[in-house]
Amino acid sequence: MSNRILIVEDEPDLLQTLAFNFTNEGYEVTEASNGAEALEVLDGDNPPVLVILDLMLPDMSGLDVCRHIRATSHLKKIFVIMVTAKGEELDRVVGFEIGADDYLVKPYSVRELLLRANGLIKRNSKESAPEENLEILNFEDLKIDLNKHKVYLKDKKISLTSKEFKLLKHFLVKADKVQNRDVLLDQVWGYSSDVTTRTVDTHVKRLRSKLGKFGNKIETVRGEGYIFNKSE
After folding, report:
1. How many angstroms separate the CA atoms of 171 and 162, rounded?
2. Do domains 4-128 and 136-228 have the same CATH topology?
3. CATH for the 4-128 domain, from 3.40.640.10, 3.90.940.20, 3.40.50.2300, 3.40.50.1580
């Protein structure tokens, strides 16, 4: 698996600090100081496995860079960690709706960013390994191909982000069992519940909207979390 990451940041000192720390962590780091440079790297022959993306860029919004990633077939599986000075709940929700896997508000701890990046890539590495006992998950007209990382509804492919795929897989494996938000953050996102549980709510909302009639199977359990209800 590639360990190449792209850091998109227009503050030179911060870009240098991040590049230094991630290089020391064993990553192959490519730097970009604006959106145009980022798109050039992404559309090149060797795209990264993860992008650390500042939203306040001089030439375009980082949101547009993220949209490009999620709209391009061979880039969709790239992890995106958004970083920004904007910390309002609406800003976070917009970021997740566009397809971010994680979101950090400046000023942030470089160590925390490293841990989150490591967590995303480690989980990707585990899920890229061959499945010994489980290749296909089925529920009526809904099918998840774990090896090919694809989801079908009545044989029509559904476009899910990497995090939505993991969330749906978790719900089906744990069907008919209540999953609280802290457990989902740990099992799907790979880090502690110190991160806002609003992250889970936003992704569940997006996932429901893509699953057609099966979206209603993901039920909210008030005061607890969610359940994928197969029995009704």
Report:
1. 14
2. no
3. 3.40.50.2300
Q: Which of 40-44, 129-133, 163-167 has the highest mean predicted lDDT (pLDDT)?
A: 40-44
Cα–Cα distance for residue pair 46/78, rounded to 1 Å: 12
The residue assigned the tokens 């990046």 is: 117
Q: With cut-offs at 50, 70 and 90, classify the pLDDT of residue 1.
A: very low
DSSP strands (E only) in 108-210: 136-139, 142-145, 150-153, 156-158, 179-180
> What is the rounded distance in angstroms from the CA atom of residue 229 to the CA atom of residue 232?
6
Q: Residue 32: count other Cβ atoms within 10 Å of its Cβ.
A: 23
According to DSSP, residue 131 is labeled: P
The whole-angstrom separation of Cα 177 and Cα 179 is 6
Tell me how far apart the alpha carbons of residues 174 and 184 are, in angstroms, rounded to a whole number: 11
In the chain, what are the domain boundaries? 4-128, 136-228
pTM confidence score: 0.61
Structure-derived torsion over alpha carbons of residues 10, 3, 49, 53, reported in degrees to the nearest 10? -20
User: What's the sign of the alpha-carbon dihedral 83, 86, 89, 92?
Assistant: negative
pLDDT one-digit tens code per residue, 151-199: 998 888 998 888 889 899 999 988 888 888 877 887 787 654 445 677 8
Return the beta strands (E) in 17-98 as ranges.
28-32, 50-54, 79-84
201 φ, ψ (degrees, to nearest 5): -60, -40
Domain 136-228 in CATH 3.30.420.10? The answer is: no
